[in-house]
Design brief:
The chain has 15 helices and no strands. It is an all-alpha fold. It has one domain: Na+/H+ antiporter like fold. The longest helix is centred in the C-terminal third of the chain and has 26 residues. The protein starts with a helix and ends with a helix.
Length: about 300
């Protein structure tokens, strides 16, 4: 338990530093945007590559991926049922809200949590792959069809192949499966770049918290609150029930699957909403509320299971 608390303390301290930097404008108005792009296109792919190339294949394709899939689908289904049959929301808004309820931040927050709390960045990799290869293409296809009346199937299918996180992860998985590992001199530059990923994404996240206003009138507050509740409580509970009573997980493996399910909604959800100009406020507020709320939730999960 002490190690878990130390891990959260490290994450919280770096986020706080980022918040102070953003509040005082130390790095300029565009610093958060630049740091996020550096982390997304350079640092995180290098980290995932170096972690996965030495990972045990059984960890990548294990019960973790199965639990993550079912827990996410459960969260999607619950939000869809409420938004569609109770509130009669439009399909694009349902898609955005459902993503807020079940599409976790397995990169910006998931990697630091996996490193400092769970013990290895490899734990977040199956979730990253699942979301970018399955959930994102399906959601983007639905948004394309319902907002424009057509779907750019080729663009959607090719999009994961141009995603740097997928490229880095795929190369790492290929090396892990084949059992061939590059010489240390080849890996060292990737390890150095990957080592900067976690602090940079935490700094950028802390900077993004400055100046945000939540749950303003007319912003779809009940949509946000329901999506946030599903994300913070429903999805971890579903992961625990499935992992403990269906797959028989105990100890650290159970802690891992529940902690990953308790991660906040991904910032990608807001990017998708912004791209199609539907449900933007719902996505923004859900991401922010679940990000702040995930800290005490993860602490409770760690206290009970860690």
């Amino acid at each position: 338990m002490t190690g878990v608390l130390v891990g959260f303390a490290i994450i919280g301290f770096i986020i706080a530093v980022g918040y102070l930097a953003g509040r005082h404008g130390i790095l300029g108005p565009s610093a958060g945007f630049v740091l996020n792009r550096v982390a997304f296109f350079v640092l995180s792919p290098c980290l995932l590559f170096t972690v996965l190339e030495s990972a045990t294949v059984s960890v990548l394709f294990s019960s973790l991926m199965a639990v993550s899939l079912v827990a996410a689908l459960t969260a999607f289904a619950v939000y869809l049922a409420v938004a569609r049959f109770v509130w009669h929301r439009g399909v694009p808004e349902i898609v955005v809200g459902a993503l807020g309820a079940g599409y976790v931040n397995a990169n910006n927050i998931g990697i630091p949590v996996a490193v400092y709390v769970l013990g290895s960045a490899a734990y977040s990799a199956p979730v990253v792959l699942l979301q970018l290869l399955v959930f994102a293409p399906v959601a983007l296809t639905i948004l394309d069809v319902t907002t424009t009346g057509r779907a750019s199937i080729g663009r959607i299918l090719l999009k994961p192949l141009t995603n740097p996180l997928i490229i880095g992860s795929a190369l790492g998985v290929i090396l892990a499966v084949t059992g061939w590992h590059p010489p240390a001199a080849v890996l060292k530059p990737f390890e150095l770049l990957g080592g900067a990923a976690v602090p940079v994404v935490l700094l950028a996240f802390g900077m993004s918290l400055h100046g945000q206003k939540l749950l303003q009138a007319g912003s779809g507050r009940r949509d946000v609150l329901v999506a946030s509740a599903i994300k913070l409580v429903g999805m971890p509970l579903a992961a625990w029930l499935l992992g403990r009573f269906v797959l028989g997980l105990q100890g650290h493996p159970l802690f891992v699957v529940v902690a990953l399910a308790a991660l906040p909604a991904a910032q990608n959800v807001f990017n998708y909403a912004q791209r199609y100009s539907r449900g933007e406020i719902i996505a923004r507020d859900t991401v922010l509320i679940t990000t702040i709320g995930s800290i005490p939730v993860l602490m409770v999960v760690a206290a009970l299971l860690g």
